[in-house]
Design brief:
Distance between the termini: 53 Å
Keywords: Receptor
Protein name: Short transient receptor potential channel 4-associated protein
Radius of gyration: 32 Å
GO molecular function, one term: phosphatase binding
Strand content: under 5%
CATH architecture of one domain: Alpha Horseshoe
Organism: Triplophysa tibetana
Helix content: 55-70%
Number of helices: 43
Structural class: mainly alpha
CATH topology of one domain: Leucine-rich Repeat Variant
Shape: elongated
CATH class of one domain: Mainly Alpha
Pfam family, one: DUF3689
CATH superfamily of one domain: Leucine-rich Repeat Variant
Low-confidence stretches: 1-56, 119-126, 260-265, 311-322, 324-342, 349-370, 425-440
């Protein structure tokens, strides 16, 4: 021990000289000296004194610490840690403890503030000497023990006031901000993580506790199991609405599947292998079930998501000012200000809104606390909508859907749409998706995107999608079916009209209205198109399509693709997908297309957009191929014959050389190793082209064309070997997934049995079969022995 102390506290004179020359951060800036000090202090810190795992620095002579402090620029932190230790013994009244902690907090909080006023990534790469010194001398361990002491002793429990608990939590949070190693260390202590949840029962310490838990869970290697939290149901039921909204930030970490952060892991091959290894439900799935079993949980989230936000009448740009204040708040970590807000909200939790009529006469800086409340109400809704969205995509989807309908989530959001969700107060919300797709700095932008994601999850392949309409719009759908002499969709007939939207417009119609006003490259266009497309996905409904066609959606999409100059691939992909669902099997849609694309130049631009990225546009190609096949079997219908002869798009796809061109490229741009959820549709579109050819007895012609293409490109066997491997993967992937196979059947109107049969025919091992791929690969170029399913 003595040798350690001599080693650390300056027996080598040049250490003092270096400290003076290098300045305040010298003890902690790189090189062997920093490593040496770290190693020695690490040994000291983990030694046990009196059964307590703190740094031996707390037992070092104060004069020695002070002497070393002069050269090392420790700002008295080791001495303060020692005082903190000595003043927090079991019989202490904690008066001195709190004073020391305040002094330490002032030294550490400046570094925490600096990290959020700079680029966070760059800031984390720099050094925070005060925080580092505090942790190195055992300050973090001391605060953890101090907080947990009531659970660690059988003696009379010492009384810690709420302010002291808050200060301990705030200092720990500041340390976590500055040093990821502190966060990771705390995350390994399951006992401490569980203990933090017990602190959430105290409204006065709730906010600091929730913030710290969120940071810790964000780096925890293993996802926490919610059912391990003592009396979770009672804890959640004890929260007021603001606390519940903040708690959703924590829940979002516990119910979302972790992002592996590696594109290779996102391949379907890797995902299938992972699913094969993990047959039991994931922790995220178990946590979702745990939440759904809490009485009243979903109902309270629905109330939070749909409650009205009080609006100031003092200035037309009020929400713009709020965003500026939000950014100020985010850049300074004003926990005390936040705490004051939480206290005020607790005292007035019985009221949904407050009187703000006097705000106009109050200076802006004095209105700050009330304004922050409104911004945070928006942020609360972001967190709540995210949790609901995740639950909607989980295994309990039908159960969640039933509850969301019962608690009138959709009508509630519809009532908020114009006043809050899509206000027209500023153009600053228009963000280019490709440039800022991960930007969440603005509450308004975050709120809108999360709202659109929720609508997408709610509508996708579910009969409850008709809750997005009002009664008049439901009647309109019925009238469209009656006029076309087709039966109403069963889901429409079964819709409970007491649960649909109120007012003159339903939520879907409101969404279409704002969608048309967005600038061409707005990030919102991507999410808006996805939300509307989800309403159409599933079994094709002529009435649904006509409802949207009558509102000018097709012309709007074509304008964006052809005339707007939109360059965002994400936005264009979402519009291609939406256009495919809107036009599929609908002769009126193709007639409207031909009316809009009325020049050769426009059609050329449209084709160029499709051909520029088949991964993005292949769903539209599939729609055209399927629709053409159906229309060609309806030649007794005069309107169909007329459109077939006049529509440039159908005429283009009717030429076999164009279909073959698409087939060549679709097969060529994917292979088993690169298949993902994004591009697997290319495989299914190529299959659709071949299935329709098989139905007409032309499959051998198409396979031979693939062979000839290989030889013309001087790569014999390349396309067909690749396609053979892709189809083997297709069998492995789809034959064990009921949901995916149902989607294929509904979207194509081709029975899944025919999909399976066609793939089996193509994969036959008989080289004499005219419909088997193997028959068209010359023996020297065959590569069919290798297992394509190896990761």
């Amino acid at each position: 021990m003595q040798s350690d102390l001599n080693f650390l506290f300056g027996t080598v004179q040049e250490d003092e000289i270096m400290a003076t020359q290098l300045g305040p951060e010298s003890p902690w800036t790189g090189g062997k000296r920093r490593t040496r000090n770290r190693n020695v202090l690490a040994r000291i810190r983990h030694s046990q004194i009196g059964g307590r795992g703190f740094s031996r620095g707390t037992q070092l002579p104060e004069v020695l610490l002070q002497e070393r402090d002069k050269g090392a620029k420790w700002h008295g932190i080791p001495v303060l840690v020692q005082e903190l230790y000595e003043s927090s013994h079991l019989n202490s009244d904690f008066t001195r403890t709190q004073a020391v902690l305040k002094e330490l907090s002032s030294l550490l909080s400046m570094e925490a503030m600096s990290i959020v006023t700079e680029d966070r990534k760059a800031a984390q790469e720099s050094t925070f000497p005060n925080t580092y010194t505090f942790d190195l001398f055992g300050g973090v361990d001391l605060l953890v023990e101090l907080l947990m002491r009531p659970t660690l002793t059988t003696l009379q429990k010492p009384k810690m006031n709420d302010d002291l608990v808050k200060d301990c939590l705030s200092v720990l949070y500041n340390c976590c901000i500055c040093m990821e190693g502190v966060t990771k260390s705390l995350a390994t202590r399951d006992d401490f993580v569980s203990f933090l949840f017990t602190l959430m029962t105290n409204k006065k310490t709730f906010l600091q506790t929730a913030t710290l838990i969120e940071d810790i869970l964000g780096v925890k290697k293993e996802m926490i199991q919610l059912e391990w939290i003592p009396d979770l149901s009672g804890l959640v039921q004890s929260f007021d609405q603001q606390q519940l909204a903040n708690f959703c930030r924590i829940l979002s970490v516990t119910i979302s599947e972790p992002d592996v952060g590696n594109d290779d892991k996102h391949t379907l091959l890797a995902k299938n292998a992972q699913q094969k290894r993990n047959t039991s439900p994931s922790r995220a799935e178990v946590n979702q079930v745990t939440l759904l079993n809490i009485p009243g949980f979903i109902e309270r989230l629905c109330k939070l998501a749909t409650r009205k936000v009080s609006e100031a009448t003092g200035t037309p740009n009020f929400l713009q000012e709020l965003e500026e204040w939000y950014n100020w708040l985010d850049n300074t970590l004003v926990l005390d200000a936040l705490m004051q807000i939480a206290t005020d909200e607790t005292e007035h939790s019985s009221t949904e809104s407050s009187d703000e009529s006097s705000l106009a006469s109050i200076p802006q800086w004095q209105r700050l606390p009330q304004s922050m409340k409104i911004v945070h109400e928006i942020m609360y809704k972001v967190e709540v909508l995210y949790v609901l969205c995740v639950l909607l995509m989980g295994r309990q989807r039908n159960q969640v859907h039933k509850m969301l309908a019962e608690f009138r989530l959709i009508p509630g959001l519809n009532n908020l749409f114009d006043k809050l969700i899509w206000r027209k107060f500023t153009a600053s919300n228009h963000v280019v998706h490709g440039q800022n797709e991960n930007c969440d700095c603005s509450p308004e932008i975050s709120f809108k995107i999360q709202f659109l994601r929720l609508l997408q999850s709610f509508s996708d392949h579910h009969e409850n999608k008709y809750l997005l309409l009002n009664v008049q719009e439901l009647n309109e759908l019925s009238a469209i079916s009656l006029k076309a002499n087709i039966p109403e969709v069963e889901a429409l007939v079964n819709t409970d009209r007491s649960l649909v939207c109120d007012g003159k417009k339903g939520l879907l119609t409101r969404l279409l209205t704002v969608m048309k006003r967005e600038p061409p490259d707005s990030s919102f266009r991507f999410w808006q198109a996805r939300a509307v497309e989800s309403f159409l996905r599933g079994a094709t409904s002529y009435a649904d399509q006509m409802f949207l066609l009558k509102r000018g959606l097709l012309e709007h999409i074509l304008f964006c693709i052809i005339d707007s100059g939109c360059k965002s691939r994400d936005v264009l992909q979402s519009y291609f997908d939406l256009l495919g669902e809107l036009m599929k099997f609908n002769i009126d849609a193709f007639k409207r297309f031909n009316t809009y694309v009325n020049t050769e130049e426009k059609f050329k631009v449209f084709l160029n957009q499709i051909n520029s990225s088949l991964v993005d546009s292949n769903m539209l190609v599939r729609c055209i191929v399927l629709s053409l096949d159906r229309f060609e079997s309806q030649t007794e219908d005069v309107k169909v014959v007329e459109v077939l002869s006049e529509c440039c798009l159908l005429s283009y796809m009717a030429r076999v050389e164009n279909r073959l061109s698409f087939l060549f490229r679709l097969i060529n741009i994917i292979n088993v190793q690169t298949l993902t959820q994004e591009n697997v549709s290319c495989l299914n579109t190529s299959l659709v082209i071949l299935m329709l050819a098989r139905r007409r007895g032309k499959l051998p012609f198409y396979l031979n064309a693939l062979r000839e293409k290989e030889y013309s490109e001087k790569y014999p066997g390349c396309l067909l070997n690749n396609f053979h491997n892709l189809l083997r993967f297709w069998q492995h992937h789809y034959l064990n997934k009921d949901k995916d196979s149902t989607c294929l059947e509904n979207s194509s109107c081709i029975p899944f049995s025919y999909w399976k049969e066609s793939v089996s025919v193509l994969l036959e091992g008989d080289r004499t079969s005219p419909c088997a791929i193997i028959s068209y690969i010359d023996e020297p170029y065959m590569e069919l022995d290798r297992d394509p399913l190896e990761v």
